[in-house]
Amino acid sequence: KSLQSIRYSRGSLQLLDQRKLPLETIYLDIKNSEAGWIAIKDMVVRGAPAIAIAAALSLAVEVSNMEDFIGDPEDAALFISNKLDYLVTSRPTAVNLSDAAEKLKKVVHNASESPHPQSVFRAYVEASEFMLEDDVASNKAIGNHGADFLHEEQKHLHRFSVLTHCNTGSLATAGYGTALGVIRSLHEKGLLERAYCTETRPFNQGSRLTAFELVHDSIPATLIADSAAAALMNAGRVDVVVVGADRVAANGDTANKIGTYSLSLSAAHHGIPFYVAAPLTSVDLLLPSGKEIAIEERSPEELLNARGGLGERVAASGISVWNPAFDVTPAALISGIITEK
């Protein structure tokens, strides 16, 4: 059974505290949108699809337990709409969150025609729950399409060695994963030789989370330092690179975890195909190119201290820090984008 980053039943939400992995497995109770916002901002939950689902469900729990709301259906719709706007401010780069918020706003707007505010809340809760189910289904479809496509594209390879970056598995989504879903699917079909995962500094999502998922699912895997990727490719040990995405612009430029751009350059130099695996909710057709993607900068502590900012100080005092969470890989360096369709 794959790991669950999100545990939900109507009126109750628990998020796996991913900052504690792999050493401790602790779930936090999320009772409202404020707790959801903090969990997303502090990276209790991360990964573009998981952030969107966790945000939506944190508000679903809040409204499920709100029997004493004073106001009419339009007030209820406005209440939800304002809370969604607030949740979107938790992390700006991933488009899935704002995409989910816009879809949910439409649902509550339509429901505000009903005579009772509770009908608006019920419509919101049901739409959020549907997003949770839909994410798992779309991830499995991404995994299957990706594995079948790679097999078809490179028939000369009986088994693939795949390099991935950051964490794009069950922990980054509602379940199964996007790029890691492709790796899972290759493994299930007997087509995986080995998965290579990068540490993904400075927050170590690769060593802490991806390695944890791969070991948990008994998938043959090797951890490498971020800076070892080019050498691994040069040694002929990588057949394909598959990464996730936080936002894909209309021209195919893709924002993903910092270090993705370097991997794409190295893959291009070594003639290795480089694929992005992401749900269609990660595609933002309103942005013409990657130049318009807002890149979140995170705390200097993540670089100054060990364990992505949670451990002891390692850097010299007085040094300044540049710590972007994402970079943009130009479409020209991407062989293709694997989606659920």
From TrEMBL:
Regarding protein family, the annotation reads: Belongs to the eIF-2B alpha/beta/delta subunits family.
Keyword presence, Membrane: no
What's the protein here called? Answer: Protein IRON DEFICIENCY INDUCIBLE 2
Identify the keywords attached in UniProt to this record, alphabetized: Amino-acid biosynthesis, Cytoplasm, Isomerase, Methionine biosynthesis, Nucleus
| Pfam families given in the database record | IF-2B
Q: Does the keyword RNA-binding apply?
A: no
Native species: Genlisea aurea
Which taxonomic lineage does the organism of this UniProt entry have? Eukaryota, Viridiplantae, Streptophyta, Embryophyta, Tracheophyta
Annotated signal sequence range: none
Instruction: Give the UniProt subcellular location, in the record's own words.
Output: Cytoplasm; Nucleus
Q: Name one GO cellular component term.
A: cytoplasm
BP term (GO), one: L-methionine salvage from methylthioadenosine
Q: Which PANTHER family match?
A: METHYLTHIORIBOSE-1-PHOSPHATE ISOMERASE
Any one Gene Ontology MF annotation carried by this entry is: S-methyl-5-thioribose-1-phosphate isomerase activity
